[in-house]
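Researcher: Before we compare anything, I want clean individual predictions. No alignment, no superposition, just each chain on its own. First chain goes here; please echo the sequence and then give the structure tokens.
Model: Echoing the first chain and its structure:
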Amino acid sequence: MTDDPRDELTQKLKRTEVQRAASSIPGREIVQVLTEIPVGVSSGWHHHPGEEVGYIVGGTVRMEIRDATTLTLNAGDGFLIPPGVAHNATDLGPEVGHMLSTYIVEIGEPLSTLEP
């Protein structure tokens, strides 16, 4: 999935789709993605067409969420991003950040969209 045109974050980060399945919520699907963020790299401000439920597998990531407190997340920490809310993830090092995110999103919409 690293070159999926429906996921604009693949332009900056290595993203591997782990699984995709229909949701019990009509019009939604569940997509699970493992994201690698190189040291010092930011995802860029973006949003998703549904919830993002995430877990930091490795590294330290600064998660900026529009109109919310900035989080510093370490391996073992979870996070939740509401639908359509812009956010930006930056790996703080010293190692590559690894995040496992589960998205509950609208079918047919791009998984992520960069903010202008």
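Researcher: Okay. Second chain, same rules.
Model: Second chain and its structure:
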Amino acid sequence: MSPPSSGAPTLRAIFLAFSKIGLTSFGGGVSGWMLREIVQRRAWLSEQEFLSGLALAQAFPGVNVVNLAIWIGFQMRGGRGALVAALGIVVPPMAVAILLAAAFSSVGDSHSVHIALAGVAAAAIGMSLQTGLRAARNAARGLVRTLILAVTFAAIFFWRLPLLWVVGAMAPLSIAVAWFRVRHEVPQP
């Protein structure tokens, strides 16, 4: 990786951006918020770069959004950027979650609270779906890549095959296809 450009965000800006993402994304869908904040609002990365980072983050063990924050921070400011992004996405929301868990213990039996949480969950699923559709649109370029995407989806969603087995079979195939394309300079459709 080349050193960060002078136009790269400061460590403080990275921490604040990831703190904002972590504190404002309720019930999941964090990668959707990241896409909006990092790509669309701040233009720190292109959509293609973001989706490549998302794919990489999902391939590594651990929490995908933390992996993605680390990757984005590293792209912006190297190792210190990775650390600051990880701290921003984890520490402030963790503090709020501890406080909310304590508060929820006293109102957890309220029907209204459960209705509100169901609404938040529906919105979060919508954000995840939006990000997933963007990633699928980006990945489905060419017949072979589209077939890999479709088979992976069908294997997990329709046939309910174990995720690890599907990824274990399809990831090497997908990597081989990408390697073959790069090696033989097959232009992307």
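Researcher: What stands out in the second chain?
Model: The mean pLDDT is 88. Additionally, The first helix runs from residue 11 to 24.
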